[in-house]
Amino acid sequence: MRIAILGATGLVGQEMIKTLEDRNFPVTEFIPLASSKSAGRVVEFRGSQFEVKEVSQDVFEGVEIALFSAGADASKKWAPIAVSNGAVVIDNSSAWRMDPEVPLVVPEVNPQDIRQHRGIIANPNCATIQALVALAPLHRRFRLEYFSAVTFQSVSGTGKEALAELDDSISSILKGNTFEPHVYPLPIGFNVLPHIGDIDETGVSEEEWKMLNESRKILHHHRLQVSCTTVRVPVRRGHSEAIVAQFEDQVTLEEAYALLSDASGVVVMSENKYITPLQAAESDFVYVGRLRYDMGLPRALSMWVVSDNLRKGAALNAVQIAELLVSDLGALK
Ligand code: 2RA
Fold first, then answer.
1. Ligand 1, atom 5: closest residue by C-alpha
2. Residue with the nearest Cα to atom 3 of ligand 1?
3. Pfam families given for it (predicted)?
4. Which of these, 77, 200, 239, 307, could form a disulfide with 286 (CB 3.0-4.6 Å)?
5. Is residue 162 in contact with ligand 1, taking CB distance under 6 Å?
6. Is 56 helix (H, G, I), strand (E, B) or coil?
């Protein structure tokens, strides 16, 4: 298959390339694309070097699947053009996620939705993906009523520059440099920032609304209630989430363990064991740890959910959607 990647030089684009290689995706022609800023660079795929082309009207001719991770503006501009050239676009940005004509897909949760696509399929937000991979098996049995999520999101969620900023802010503070406590943005080194995306007039951030709105769309569960606080933490790679999930039916730990043990893409830790982001980096799985009855709510479980935000939270989920398209060729039309 002729596969294009728009955003090929970014962190997620690079992870998409690695994931296509790791999963031996049937690529017959590889077309790395980027904005003018990054065009001309060289990327490697399956041992060969490819010059990154600048995205334009003409580069999508004959492309069958285009993986996008170049930001919402680029997706809004180039996805319709790619589709008009016959490609199916799998978009990792927020541009199309809530468009009623665009399916929002987590392959372990709602794979059937890919057949609704009209040329574009949206990849959900990383924090949403890992939460629903863990919650969907329980939802299908006990019917999710409400969940709260406090996230601890790594800096790689905002790209390469953020990784450099983390290193710089840590080394600056270690050298004894001080910072202005009331000058924003505050350093992320030795700090946590409860602010991801713009905060609106209700005091809720963009990232927090994504958890509610995307979860309702993916689960087709529009009465679902969600509370969410998203926090940036000084971690390079891997998001963690402290989740409390309340169900309509009485849930038992034994059944929850059994369901999660059988769930695709999930590793559930026994007893009070847990995984940390450092351990989950570059893994394909969503790790569920410290699974327990919630201290305060009836019919509720608490859990610690960790996954690699660049892998399952972005690149792997997108490539798995591409695999669904290939396995169900009818959906490629
Ligand atoms: C973040 N979820 O972590 C957002 C976008 N990847 O910054």
1. 157
2. 157
3. Semialdhyde_dh (PF01118), Semialdhyde_dhC (PF02774)
4. 307
5. no
6. coil
Does ligand 1 have an atom closer than 6 angstroms to the CB of 158? yes
Asked whether residue 219 is marked as a ligand-binding residue, the answer is no
Q: Scanning the structure block, which residue is given the tokens 């792997």?
A: 316
Check whether 73 has a pLDDT greater than 80: yes
Superfamily of domain 2-124+314-332 in CATH is NAD(P)-binding Rossmann-like Domain (3.40.50.720)
Mean pLDDT (whole number) for 70-88:
98
pLDDT for 168-200, tens place per residue?
A: 999 999 999 988 888 888 999 999 999 999 999
Establish whether domains 2-124+314-332 and 128-309 are of one fold: no
Task: Report the CATH superfamily, name and number, of domain 128-309.
Answer: Dihydrodipicolinate Reductase; domain 2 (3.30.360.10)
Atom of ligand 1 nearest to the CA of 210: 2
**Centre of ligand 1 from the C-alpha of residue 68, in Å:** 15
Q: Active-site positions?
A: 126, 239
Task: State mean pLDDT over 220-233.
Answer: 98
Closest atom of ligand 1 to 196 CA is: 7
Q: Is 238 annotated as a binding residue?
A: no
What pLDDT was estimated at residue 333? 63
Please name the residue whose Cα sits nearest to atom 4 of ligand 1: 157
Q: Check if the beta carbon of residue 40 is closer than 8 Å to that of residue 103.
A: no
Which own/partner contact pairs does 207-211 have at CB distance under 8 Å and 24+ positions apart? Answer: 207/125, 207/127, 207/151, 207/153, 210/94, 210/97, 210/124, 210/125, 210/127, 210/128, 211/125, 211/127, 211/128, 211/131, 211/149, 211/151
206 among annotated binding-site residues: yes
For residue 162, the model assigns a pLDDT of: 96
What is the residue extent of each domain of the chain?
2-124+314-332, 128-309
